[in-house]
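anyone seen this seq b4? input:
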Amino acid sequence: MKIGIVCYPTFGGSGVVATELGMALADKGHEVHFITYNQPVRLDFISHNLHFHQVLIEEYPLFQYQPYELALSSKMVEVVQKYDLEILHVHYAIPHAYAAFMAKQMLLEKGIQVKVVTTLHGTDITLVGSHPNYKTAVEFSINNSDIVTAVSNNLKETTNKLFTIKKNIEVVYNFIDTEKYDKAREEECRRIALAKPEEKIITHISNFRPVKRVEDVINIFYRVQKEIPSKLLMIGEGPERAKVEALTKKLNLRKKVFFLGNSTEIDKILCYSDVFLLPSKTESFGLAALEAMAAKTAVISTNTGGLPEVNIHGETGYLSNLGDVDDMAKNTLKILQDDSILNKFKENAKAHTKMFSLDNILPIYEEIYTSCFKSIL
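predicted toks r here
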């Protein structure tokens, strides 16, 4: 099949999933075209079936904000026409689903049919899409997509609660390439470069937005390191980084906390880790937690959103109420206090990721595409 993928080309979960999906589809022999304003950060052109089309926005003094949606819709039309695409798979409702609907209508006037699959990832629904300024357009775009998927049951329920949805939303979990994390661990894992043999390594990965509650990460670690020798790896960039660095200095943790910025080698970084902290206000799924689990890392997280569908309390890690840093610190210590307990959680975490493997999830998307493709014939 010939598939167009539209996503945000960033380090966020939706962009990562869309990119990994496109590369996996290309490996299976499908022709995949990414349509976005920059090349996705994890896109690796190792397959001749992968293509990238950049959306360019012309500067015009009349507009205070340049109309990306118009440029995106026009680019979709251009790529569909030129390469005979059959499916447009858009990730994130805003503005991609809306732009895809406009492209589909323009193509229909030219006698060309293309099907639109919309995947909802979370903040496009919970934080942005439900805003009064956007709600009507988002609701319209979802209802006019041919197939709609959500990355967790919790997100499906939230979407149906916030909007009047006239079609069934299919739950297709985010996936992970477990083999990539196995290879990273098989290669030399230079743990000694970051911590002494007796020290434990705790990790956090996010875009450092307020919803991730990165100050909670520091406060949890502060409690843990007083009991168990440990180091903290902070991976990512975002608006809360300066505030978190200031808190690290205030608590005299600068020699124990490493800010590593954004990285395309998450698998190699996670091979160092014993426990992963994710105290988010909400997570539609929790892809970062799943990546940690694939690297044999126990997870300490909140019990919000879709996280209980990923992190199994008492097996792969522990769940706590939002903001309860004392409980999260206590649970972290419970895991780290004994190597046999830690290893059990690590093994459980790795085993649980099998249900989210690429081999299990990719055929579901292929089936969705096939059902769309058949309806065109």
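The first strand starts at residue 2 and ends at 6. The CA atoms of residues 39 and 237 lie 19 Å apart. kinda curious what u guys think
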